[in-house]
Predict the structure.
Amino acid sequence: METSLKVIEEALPYLLQGLYMTVLISIVSIIISLVIGLVACFMRMSKYAILRYPAAIYVNIIRGTPILIQILFIYFGAPSVLDIHLSAFAAGLIAISLNIGAYNTEIFRGGIESISKGQMEAGRSLGFSYAQTMAFIILPQAVRRMIPSFVNQLTHAIKDTSMLSVIGIAELTMVGQSIYAMNFRSFEILTMVGLFYFITIYTVSLISTKMERRFVIT
Amino acid sequence: MIKVNNLSKSFGNLEVLKNISTNIAPQEVVCIIGSSGSGKSTFLRCLNLLEEPTSGEIIVEDENIVEKDTDINKLRQKMGMVFQQFNLFPQKSVIQNITLAPMKLKKKSKKEAEALAMELLKKVGLSEKADVYPTNLSGGQQQRVAIARALAMEPHVMLFDEPTSALDPEMVGEVLRVMKQLAKEGMTMVIVTHEMGFAREVADRVIYIDGGRIVEEGNPKDLFSNPTHERTRAFLSKVL
């Protein structure tokens, strides 16, 4: 029987490829989810019901269903009735982005609404428009308050990509499964897979702690 | 300077202001007094449209600002406002609080805006606090910075919404002194206040509002010593 070290050494190149896919999907979907979250957040805070309701429905549907169902729905469910064909990669990106986007919406909204009404009034009374007051006065304060929950969300995003193994995307979890299906060394392989996730997420936490400190008001 | 004609304001079914009409002349200092919930703050906030009037007109320098096509942001640049809770921007230093609007809205250079800010800080007696953050200032100091911030836009009129109500008693004086100085320099001022001594000393005219209506107005000497209205008398007997 091969030693554990040998098993890991042989698996490493494939696991690294899986890790690359995991990181790629995480980064791209986090960027997309930022945009979704920002747009949906301002829609939810709009005074117009026609903007407010769609955003609220979106957030509630995503929050109220498991991400696994969302992934399956976008990859298998939707294309079966709509005339579209999505690659697993595209479907995976869309599912993760939509999922994280909904949570971002609420994180952003919570951050903005936590800033006292007086700040908006002070900005407006000086002659700034709503958008200018948001950009110069409200958002800089709100972003600081959002960082902890946003980072928490990032770690969820990275972990959730492991669900994409169900639609056959060769990310870290999927690669791990394929390897131990062949060599039956699930202990070593899953340990490595877990370790890779941990290192990735821990790095994100470290970076965010630095960022948080930079944003602190003296 | 400001003409208010038949101004009414309702929040849902609650009518807060009923048919208010008055004029504010250039360089005039008007104090608005009345008990809590009388509508005096709402009236002040209507003047720069922080509250949207339900009906009536407000004419500021020949422009009816209630009309839809008013450039509300331009208008507000002419009307400085000071709030009960100061509302300084906590992520910005004192001098950044003051220079933000002139730099972004009037396109002043940083040097120009800072020179003006230092001049205003000197005026409110806080020159040495330019680089301090608002959280490190006392309430009275914060309010004086807020006044300087409003003045930095070189407004034609200043609106004060209970500027000393959130202050510890020993800090009220320093803020009132700055306001007195402003009045002396000829600034047009509309002040919602509970400081009757200040109103009596500084105001050209005092307006008593109760139940959303102007009950009585006049020069402070007459109104304070010889109120004609029963309700004014009752109110003054409680606060003087």
